[in-house]
Amino acid sequence: MTHILQIDSSPRLERSHSRALASAFLEQWKPYHPGAIITHRDLVRDPVPYLDATWITAKFTAAAAIALSDELVDEFLAADCYVLSAPMYNFGIPAVLKSYIDYIVRPKRTFAVTENGFKGLITHKKMILVQARGSDFRYGSAYASMNFQEPYLKTVFGFIGITDIEVINANRLNTELRDQELAAARTTIQALAATW
Ligand SMILES: Cc1cc2nc3c(=O)[nH]c(=O)nc-3n(C[C@H](O)[C@H](O)[C@H](O)COP(=O)(O)O)c2cc1C
Questions:
Q1: Using a 6 Å cutoff on CB, does residue 106 contact ligand 1?
Q2: H-helix or E-strand containing 189?
Q3: 4 forms bridges with which residues in the sheet?
Q4: Which atom of ligand 1 has the smallest separation from the CA of 92?
Q5: Which atom of ligand 1 has the smallest separation from the CA of 90?
Q6: CA 156, 99, 28, 171 torsion: positive or negative?
Q7: Given 2, 36, 84, 95, which residue has the most CB atoms within 10 angstroms?
Q8: 132 C-alpha vs ligand 1 centroid, how far in Å?
């Protein structure tokens, strides 16, 4: 049975476009997968704290004091696919999402260090990335080179082994083109929901 982990990170809650598009995807996807389990990790309603020195020491010595990280990693590993929604914040991602990533990118649990370099330990799992942006960061646009959101998320999840990543992007949401952008994103959602 498919088990999805839905991860949301926009503080705008009900007004968030990235959350709404992720939910719209799941609503359309569910009828194709009756019985699927969806676990929701809301990084705003239930934020993870920033790392401190105790935790970092524990992480690298495999000592105690990493219970929250263990819990988040266990939850992450229990899923077999992911729907992650994120606003673009200052060309990157919100701090709550970065903090979460710092807890789940764990040596020996989600990546390994081998003689041949790093190896992601999460294999055969796929992700949908839902990204909302106020301005235009589409590939080929004037500000495309300033987009550290999608390249970062693809890099860090690729690092732990998740390379099958589909993207639903909504750009220009703070312009008069918002409705057009949202309609285009929903067309992408419809196609993906039927095939993913
Ligand atoms: C703190 C902050 C930083 C932002 N930085 C960017 C940015 O770098 N590029 C951009 O296109 N939009 C930026 N925006 C606009 C948001 O990406 C946009 O409003 C988007 O819809 C937010 O996602 P949400 O609707 O899911 O909350 C920023 C908004 C905030 C509040």
A1: no
A2: helix 178-195
A3: 38, 81
A4: 8
A5: 8
A6: negative
A7: 84
A8: 7
Domains and CATH numbers, the chain: 3-195 (3.40.50.360)
How far does CA 167 lie from the centroid of its chain?
Answer: 10
Whole-model pTM? 0.95
Tokens representing 61?
A: 């010595």
Q: What is the pLDDT of residues 168-185, one digit of tens each?
A: 999 999 999 999 999 999
Angle at alpha carbon of residue 97, lines to 92 and 99, rounded to 5°: 110
Dump strand ranges (E) for the chain: 3-8, 37-42, 81-87, 111-114, 117-120, 126-132, 164-170
Map residue 67 onto helix, strand or coil. helix
Dihedral sign for Cα 137, 138, 143, 144, please.
Answer: positive
pLDDT tens string 89-137? 999 999 999 999 999 999 999 999 999 999 999 999 999 999 999 999 9
